[in-house]
Amino acid sequence: MKEFDTIAAISTGLSEGGISIIRISGDDSINIISNIFIGKNDRSIKDIKSYTMRYGHIISGSTKEIIDEVIVSFMKCPKSFTGEDTIEINCHGGLIPSNRILQEIFMQGARIAEPGEFTKRAFLNGRIDLSQAEAVIDIIRSKTELSMKAAIMQSEGKVSKEIKKLRQRLLEIIAHIEATVDFPEDDLEEVTSIEAEKKLSKLLIDIEKLISSADEGKILRDGLSTVIVGKPNVGKSSLLNALLSENRSIVTEVPGTTRDVIEEYLNIDGIPIKLVDTAGIRETTDIVEKIGVEKTKEKIAEADLIILMLDSSNILTDEDREIINYIKDKKYIILLNKSDIGRDLNKDELLYLNTVNIIETSIVSGSGILELKAIIKELFFKGEIKNNELLITNSRHKEALIRAKASIEASIVALSNTFAIDLASIDLRNAWSYLGEISGETLEEDIIDKIFKEFCIGK
Description:
Elements: E1 7-10, E2 19-25, H1 29-36, E3 37-39, E4 52-59, E5 66-75, E6 86-92, H2 95-107, E7 111-112, H3 117-124, H4 130-141, H5 145-155, H6 158-182, H7 189-212, H8 214-222, E8 224-229, H9 236-244, E9 262-268, E10 271-277, H10 287-302, E11 305-311, H11 318-327, E12 332-337, E13 358-360, H12 369-381, H13 395-415, H14 421-439, H15 445-452
Parallel strand pairs: 1-7, 8-10, 8-11, 11-12, 12-13
Antiparallel strand pairs: 1-2, 2-6, 3-4, 4-5, 5-6, 9-10
Helix pairs in contact: 4-5, 6-7, 6-14, 7-13, 13-14
């Protein structure tokens, strides 16, 4: 079975660098490396102790020619990341040396690791649970220090511990209900129902708290998708450049210069912002610009936040009104740009909008930029981001919590009818199972495989 194969992959980036790290995991790790490694003074690698390193050379298994100068480290099972015998080869960085060594390892019987297979083995061998495994890729992909901290908290098992507590509380309630059902002669149904309802109501509060953290958690994990929209030449690209403090977008006085969407990440006090500069929304006969306008509309539909830019030095146009109507049901901030030039725009026409989120700006002078950042924090994090707060950052975890909540609510309805108390137990078992999906204890194998396929090879 492939789960028992010895696997290998390059764990560092495939580019030039100081070192590359090649990882081998499985029962044959020591045998494989011993066939292609010569230590200093011809010392054998087979007597290497766990958590030690050995200097030497990787050689060709067939010709015995030296391939590279390396340092080999060994972690013996079960005290390794994967829970298996693990070898890590530190060689010179670059495609040629690392690939050449990897090919020698394959020739000795190892196979290429699948995406995320090292982490999957750590999960299957009980070293980590599924939520901790998912945190590994979140750490790698983190956009800011705060998003990395949230991922590290999850990798340390803080989410798992909280879920374990909730499942234990559920199990105690289930046991109490089923004991009552098994001994009906004691007439305890009513007492059990009242006690169980009280405990479940408290449990719901804790689950709802975790669910409510998921929106902020998703932003820390994936970034706040923020789309800058407005008619052509209103200053959208200039705003992107100002926020990034670099000339990322081409800025000219010619309308329609931006024809495609441009995406960049920005860090606002720890919040990762995925900024999207879009083509101006307007009627155009230019085929390329038309495609850009359609892409703009798609990005607006997907966005967490819209920044609409209006030209305060001109009156509101039909194009502006069309865009306002298009975004009014989304979360938005309106920038009245070019306020340093003039204020010909009639603000009374904007009274039906949320005036708290309207800022007068001048991208040229930089006025209004700090206020914009403050409003973004207020809209999504109530002005403050707490470093040590437990956040649900994974949408899969949120879905499991929502399903568990619905099952608990259904059980409370069943408990209100003492004749249907046994039905409450079924709903609570479903809730217990849904929560177990977060740690991977009750998740189907094909879903687990799908999760790890999103990982990079070598992790």
